[in-house]
Structure formats: structure tokens, C-alpha cells
């Protein structure tokens, strides 16, 4: 919406309201202002905004644009709910030339809408044993084109109180519950537990139960790591499992194999990844691997709810490869009912951002159904028969000259067949 207004000299030293309507289910409001003086003389228009209840932000003459979201906003403006109703852009007529001026205000309201977002669910900062600040991590993630990162410092929540709200990425509060016999990420809550100390299975259960009561999502991290794998009981309460931690290595392969066995047994368990980045080096880097989530909104809860649905795939970097796994209207994470019309067709896998030599695998509970080597395509489509299968998932393998090895480049969560 664009609103143009002539401000006369007689309207100087006032606060003018320019109303606009915010409809339901908005994710972002962006306002920009252009001022053109009519003739000589000082011309200064201050800028701010009022929501349906009160003044929500003010930047005076320091800015000509601002944005607001539920969790982040331009400095000087308050993030939070974007309530439905009549808002107003506030124009402070601080200096008006004798002939007046023209103000052009453009208001853009972006609705919540489902789309793929990408980021990193496991990262450390100076709040524990990481080398970088939250702001430095967020800056790097934004430069990579990522949408989110989780702040998962060991056994502390101070990072969740210190994050920069003006960051260009969504910062998910978290904590890595770190014990001598296993680690678990607690995501989505500023202070998931009161006391991290756990030296018995019973205490671990208590900590995870407390995190659950407080609303946290629970991830078992690098469960087959030889140094800090999961040695507690597997029957603990958790939501997701980290099958890809940092550079691809044997411990990740063990977790991938274990996860596939869980799927074959009938369990529906969401797989995620994380760089576990403490300090960048040749092999450990931000968002390597990258977790891709089909989210209803670019918010903390939108991203976490998206992971809950299983609409998630992992790639070795933010550039991909990217995966789509569908059966008609159903996509990865969904369950295709036995009587659905789609069951008469095939599962379709579409892979993009491929390189020559990549191997694409379409895998079911019966094992590898289709394996295809890429010779020249940047994208590839494979089909799978649904009869007698309980799920399909996909993998992409690539030869990396840096380490002279064939490593996982992407992996999808399953599309389930009821």
C-alpha cells in the first residue's frame, strides 16, 4: 500500500497519523518513507508507528524505514504480535519548508505462508566453549542466506537472554543438556530446566521431563559419537534425533543406519542435523550440515512446528542438494492413507542442485529401490511403487575431492505409507 500526502507549512510541529489496515495472520510489517521538499528550506520528517493499542516504535529523524515481526524488529521498534486492526504510521513534522513537502509512505504487510526455510539447529558461542559471539554467528548465517539458527550452549541459558533482536535470522532459544554419558538439545524455551546436573538415568529422565513440561523440543545429539554418544537408556522422552552432526563421519553413518532400522520397525522418528560449530575451521563450518524445514511462518514456533511434522531434509551446505518427496498432495513427513487415491500412483522424488557423479538413492523399508548416477543433470526425478512399502526416503551421495571420499550430500525424512 502506498500513501502520498502533502504536508503544509502550517502543519509543522505536529504528529500526523497515516492509517493503514493490518489483516489477520500477518508475519511482517515493513514501512518506508520518502520525503520531497517543495522549494527551499529545512525539511525533516520524523518516523514512528502506532498499533491498535499504543505507540509501538519511534526512530525520529534517524531512519526512513523499519520492519516489525513477532520476534525481531528494527532497533527502536518493538517486536511482538502483529494485531489485526487499524494501525498508523506516525509522521513528526519537525521541519517543514515554507512551500511544504510531499511524503510518500509505502506499507508492506507480509502474510504467514508455508515455504522452505534453512538453518542450523546446533551451534555454540562464547556463552560456553564457542569462539564466536551470537551476533557473529548470526551475521555469518545471514550472509549464507540462512533463515534460522539454534543457540545451544552447554548447560546454560544466558545466550537466550543476550541475543540481538535486530539479527537477520530467527534465533531459536536452546540449551545443550551435556552429561558425561550423552547430550541432548532442548529447543524453543529460554530456560528449559533449572539445574542441568544429572549423573544417573533417573536424573536424566527428570531433566528431560522438566524440559518437556516447560515446552521444549528434545533432540538426542550425535548418539553414536565415540566421545560423547548417548549411553543412557533409549527409552527417554525425546522428539527428534540428530543423525548428522558436523562433517560426515562413521559415527553419523551409525546413527543413519540405526534410524533406518527404527523406521523399518514402524517407528516414525524425525531426523535433524546440526553443525555443532564451536569455531570455524577447514571442515567445521556454519550450517554444515543445513537443516531445511517446511514452515508455516518464519518464526521460532513456525520452524519448530514444521520440524514436528517431519517436513525436513538435510544437505551438506546451504546450497543443497535440495529434495522433494511427494505422493500427490502428500509430502515428506505426511502419512498417505491406505485408501487415498494417491496410492494408485507412485512416490515422486525430485532432486535439484546436483553435480556430475552424484548418486541418488530412493529407499524404502525394503531397502534401496532405485539408485541412479548423475552424468550431466542438475536435477533428477525418480519414481517408486507404493505397494507393500511403509515409507520412502532419499539420499544423495557425492565424492568430495577435499577428503577423497564418497560422503552423504543430502538425506530426506520419510514419506510414510499407512
UniProtKB/TrEMBL annotation:
Q: Where are the transmembrane segments?
A: none
Polymerase/histidinol phosphatase N-terminal domain location is 119-181
Q: Which Pfam families has this protein been placed in? A: PHP
Q: Name one GO molecular function term.
A: 5'-3' DNA exonuclease activity
Highest taxon above the source species: Bacteria
Q: Which InterPro entries match?
A: PHP_dom, PHP_domain, Pol/His_phosphatase_N, Pol/histidinol_Pase-like
In terms of PANTHER family, this protein maps to: EXONUCLEASE (PTHR42924), POLYMERASE_HISTIDINOL PHOSPHATASE N-TERMINAL DOMAIN-CONTAINING PROTEIN (PTHR42924:SF3)
Entry protein name: Phosphoesterase
Q: Tell me which species this is from.
A: Paenibacillus pectinilyticus
